[in-house]
Amino acid sequence: MCRLLAVKDSRSFAMPPYLASFAEMARRSREYQGDGWGCAWQDGAAWRLHRSVTPVWDDDLTRFGETRLMLAHARSAFRNEGIRVENNMPFLDGRLAFAFNGELHGVRIREEGRIGAEKLFNTVRRLTNGSVADGLARAARVIRRRTAHVRAMNVLLSDGERIYLHSFFSEQPEYFTMHLARNNGRLAICSEPLSLETGWQPLPNDTLEAFG
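Structure (tokenized):
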């Protein structure tokens, strides 16, 4: 199961320190997180994207500049399958950036997608016509209702202005609990507390929240 990070600030911040801290977290994870990684970040009013099958801790993180909002994802491929760069998150559709971790069994939804995470993203896109928060809530209800067993379903979604989080798990709270830190106007959400920030707080299970 993968690792997630989102960082947002009203002012630009340097990406490499956050990515380096995220890479160290992924490297020491009890689950192998080396099946590639990706990050999406705001450049002006547009998303930019980097994805690689290189483990995040082996990539050149100094190449990245500054942004005011970024999402990062370190991949642990389910059953070591589908290790291709196009399967790495975040996924983009021009407006939305999406990253997911978790495990779902017996999903009964008809949706296009090469892998389960892409099918989830396409479900969110289809149900998000107006409010992103409402669309994510609808998608979460549909997916959870039509899934035999949700081990975990953590989603980070952003429209370039806000970060939306859905976090639910039925097993391993010590692994799937998402964490939040706010310092000097900067917001960080991560699978685990990063050494770069202080004051991390665990978010409750079954969280659905928008962060401005």
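The longest strand covers residues 3-14. Residues 41 and 70 are 4 Å apart (CA to CA).
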